[in-house]
Specification:
Layout (H helix, E strand, L loop, with lengths): L3 H4 L2 H10 L4 H17 L9 E5 L5 H9 L8 E3 L6 E6 L5 E6 L9 H9 L7 H19 L3 H4 E6 L12 E3 L6 E3 L4 E3 L2 E3 L1 H4 L4
Parallel strand pairs: 1-2
Antiparallel strand pairs: 1-3, 3-4, 4-5, 6-7, 8-9
Length: 204
Amino acid sequence: MLSQTIENKELFQKCLDFHGHLCPGLSLGFQAAMAGMDWLAATRSEDEEVVAIVETDACGTDAIQVITGCTFGKGNFIYRDYGKTAFTFFSRQSGKGVRISRKYEPQALLSNRHKALMERMKSKDVTKAERSEFNALHEAKAIEIMEQAPTALFTVTEVSIPLPPKAKIEPSVQCDRCKEPTMASKLESVDGQSLCRGCLGPES
């Protein structure tokens, strides 16, 4: 059961509805997104006014999308596979940027029991009691994170790097092999044929 303080946070509830369940990662993403948007003094991006660069594909990125309005479809949500709970936010209007990265605090990590149960959740023979205990620990940790100040959770660093170009909108061209319409700039010329990356294989 969520605490009343979290239930009253309309934005968090939107993140929860989008993600599907309460967990520590979602809480971290929410806190990071709120801190980043506050630092930029920005409002939710209707188009590409705000750019978010995420260094993980874990739960928190769902909250980043909901709070900032940055999405893959708009071209202002950029994923870098670094495995870090770190998020960079830019405002195209002000030119300001900030990186919000998770502090390493040993006392803030999951308990040994929590981690053991997380492993058990991957097993086909996890018991109902174990699942219930895991969910309780997971939600308690999520609530604990929500009740902390962002400064206790993150290192906040002003950054200045070139902004990525805006999303490309261009006509599609047929791939010569699979015949599917593909963005022209994503086709590769091979032996006189224009091939999509799917036909070229996973390493393309």
